[in-house]
Amino acid sequence: MELELKARPKYQRVLLKLSGEALAGERGYGIDLDVVNSISSQVSRVHQLGVQIALVVGGGNIFRGLAASERGFDRATGDYMGMLATVINALAIQDGLERLGQPARTMTAIQMPQVAEPYIRRRAVRHLEKGRVVILAAGNGDPYFTTDTTAALRAVEIAADVILKATRVDGVYTADPRLDPAARKLDRIDYMEALNRGLTVMDSTALTLCMENGVPIVVFDLLREGNIERVILGEEIGTLVGTQA
Length: 245
Prior knowledge:
alpha/beta, nine-stranded mixed β-sheet, Carbamate kinase, globular, 10 helices, two-stranded antiparallel sheet, 19% strand
């Protein structure tokens, strides 16, 4: 049965959105190489199913521009620093993939040719078609935009079938389960309902962009080994955000 499922993944081209905090593991800051290795292994196995995969990674494990601005830091400068942090994370994942023999390319919205390729949409798609994992870093190159918005934008640009938002929780809840014991997990929810209820799926700009372009979002727990594959193979884990509740 498992082989039969692996022959028919539910999605053919996906965008995996990783939070920077997820890369920090239990330490909460910096890069946990065990987490990097686990993510790289899961991504490599998904690629072996014949799925084209791009990643957008955050930088919150190193620097958060918004948090710095709340303490008097210039917002634009802080956001640019956060974008550079995402490049550090992207290079770590690229190295993890390449050590497994999986070809990967890091592409950045801010040009830094010594370490990565500049992001060009058609080139990114070509890399995917050639069997390379593409890691998209440095946000969209502009301050005041989150990596959630970047993930939504890039997913639309490369015509991804779905955004897989890998987090440290197992889905979307009606309230913060750490603060409200009555909070319940939602298996499915409509875009508009998520917007109207202010649920923490993605920021409103990203969620609206997905809604307008019909890109579904699956929010799931990254820290459980094998969950990326489970989502790709159609197992109903986490929360599906789409046109039907």
